[in-house]
Amino acid sequence: MHASSVSASARRAHGSPARRRLHRLTPTRWAAIGFAAPLILYMLIFYVVPLVQNVSMSLHRYSRRTFVTGEAPFVGLDIYKEVLSTNEFWTTLGQTLIFVVVSIVFQYSIGLALAVFFNQNFKLSATLRGIFLVPWLLPPMISGTIWQWMMDADNGIINKFLGMLGIAPVWWLQAGHSLWAVIIANIWLGIPFNLVILYSGLQNISKDLYEAASLDGCNGWQKFWKITFPLLRPVTMITLLLGFVYTLKTVDIIWLMTQGSGTSQTLATWSYAMAFGKGYSSTIRYSEASVVGTLLILIALIFAFIYIGVQRREEKA
After folding, report:
1. What residues have CB less than 8 Å from 218, skipping those under 6 apart?
2. I want to staple 178 with a disulfide (CB 3.0 to 4.6 A). Which of 37, 75, 204, 258 is the partner?
3. In whole angstroms, what is the distance from residue 142 CA to residue 224 CA?
4. In sequence order, what DSSP letters do the residues of 42-84 get, joined into one string?
5. CB of 54 closer than 8 Å to CB of 286
6. Could you tell me which of 246, 228, 241 has the C-alpha nearest to residue 190?
7. Calpha distance 159→168 (Å, rounded)
8. What one-character DSSP code corresponds to residue 155?
9. Does residue 255 or residue 217 have the better pLDDT?
């Protein structure tokens, strides 16, 4: 009897394992939890919950009525099969790849060239670098409206310039040329982002390396390929990854310029059009839009995992 009472008293004194862990939390850890809690809550509400809802909608056949009542029947992967079996999906996927790849190649190439140029730290370099940030600072609505006006077939400044050179006007925003129209506008929007990130990477490369290369007789081109480009590889990888994800989900600039018509339709604008862009007509397709949105997320995740794998291999090497 006495031994059992002593054991019970000892348990009460020490408490449960969970209570002991709480007692071990220092004020610093409580402060860390307090700072992290708003971010975790924000991520749960605005990222995790919408993501789960999107996946759920892709597995249920939603109509306008069932979207309101929440009684959509579960169909599993049937909608995925329907979307993947259409010619429109594969055509749109090809247009999306062209839009993403061409945009990223030119954004990165021009951004890198400008970053190397401004890294010379000549007079007015800071001012000119600030001017190049203007496209990045403008709201997409303004940028889309500007490019729509510039590419107007009758009154656009681009066609007037081509006319001065004796070139016939180009119907930029029509179905056949709309993809290249939005690519040009998107390249213009993405150059400042690449410029800022790559310029920051160049600032971390020691000037002593260039001085040593000069003593060895290397010219400017050799310095770029043997010093600048290899040492920029980590920054390049994250820049390309972020550019890929951002370009893949681009809707605003395309929708403002062409509403995703003709060859300018991408997976992102197609998903938007199916859910919201057709005036809420009888052809509205919430489930199909969710399927395309889920596929976009999967594509982005695949490239994110590729980036992580390459990064780990480089760290081991």
Report:
1. 226
2. 258
3. 37
4. HHIIIIIHHHHHHHHHHTB---HHHHHH--PPB-TTHHHHHHH
5. no
6. 246
7. 8
8. T
9. 255
Q: Is the pLDDT of residue 250 over 80?
A: yes
Alpha-carbon span 268 to 108, nearest angstrom: 22
In CATH terms, the superfamily for domain 88-284 is MetI-like (1.10.3720.10)
Q: What does the alpha-carbon distance between residue 181 and residue 202 come to, in Å, rounded to a whole number?
A: 32
Nearest-angstrom CA–CA distance, 140 and 152: 18
Is residue 148 within 8 A of residue 257, CB to CB? The reply is yes
Q: Are 178 and 172 in contact (CB under 8 A)?
A: yes
Residue type, 74: F
Show the tokens assigned to 307.
Answer: 């980036």
Name residues whose C-beta falls within 8 Å of residue 72's C-beta, 6 or more positions apart in sequence: 57, 60, 61, 62, 63, 66, 287
User: pLDDT tens digits, residue range 178-219?
Assistant: 999 999 999 999 999 999 999 999 988 888 888 888 888 888
- Which residue is listed with tokens 């209570």? 19
Domain regions of the chain by residue span: 88-284
Q: What is the pTM of this model?
A: 0.83
Contact assessment for residue 111 and residue 195, using Cβ atoms and an 8 Å cutoff? yes
